[in-house]
Amino acid sequence: MGGTMDGTKQRRRGNTRQRIQDVALELFAEQGYEKTSLREIAERLEVTKAALYYHFKTKEEIIVSIFEDLTKPIEELIEWGRQQPHSLDTKQEIVRRYSQALTDAAPLFRFMQENQATVRELSIGEMFKNRMLGMRDIVIDPDSDLVDQVRCISALFTLHAGMFLLQDLEGDPVDKHKAVLEVATDLVTQAHQGTRTAR
């Protein structure tokens, strides 16, 4: 019985935590990470600084928690990918899921793009590098030749580029997203066919 009560309390707390994260990310985007204070975050949330403090003691704690929450699907994808054979289906599924994870975490990646110096100083820079290495390891087939390995890694960067560089291009965002996904999928498919003919 007590367990259910705790669960509800956890969830309620989780919502406040999420609101703090969303508002902090909004402010970081508007005026930069350095210029934003915890007090301003509390004011926009219309809570006391003490209430904010209950969840997070520093701005870095907020951004690290956002990073951990929003990149959890990427971490889960890496875990899943490690268990899979290096098949074409696996690679196409990795591209599809990674594309979705990037879309869901878009505000975070925008923050990282606009605050690169800060990101390098914060622990999330290192964490992001590790996630990227994990993605690289599951998308390339170590037995394939270098050109095909580069194609697979390029598929990941195509998805990244799609998030930022295509924003200014004319066109429907849904169509742009589809086009990016198609190119990334083509790259891993081509790489896989290269592997097959080589054997």
TrEMBL record:
Keywords in alphabetical order: DNA-binding
Keyword DNA-binding: yes
Alphabetized InterPro entries for the sequence: DNA-bd_HTH_TetR-type_CS (IPR023772), Homeodomain-like_sf (IPR009057), HTH-type_Tx_Regulator (IPR050624), HTH_TetR (IPR001647)
Domain HTH tetR-type: 14-74
DNA-binding region location: 37-56
Annotated Gene3D superfamilies: Tetracycline Repressor, domain 2
Entry keyword annotation includes DNA-binding: yes
PANTHER family membership: ACREF/ENVCD OPERON REPRESSOR-RELATED (PTHR43479), ACREF_ENVCD OPERON REPRESSOR-RELATED (PTHR43479:SF11)
Protein name: TetR family transcriptional regulator
Phylogenetic placement of the source organism: Bacteria, Bacillati, Actinomycetota, Actinomycetes, Kitasatosporales
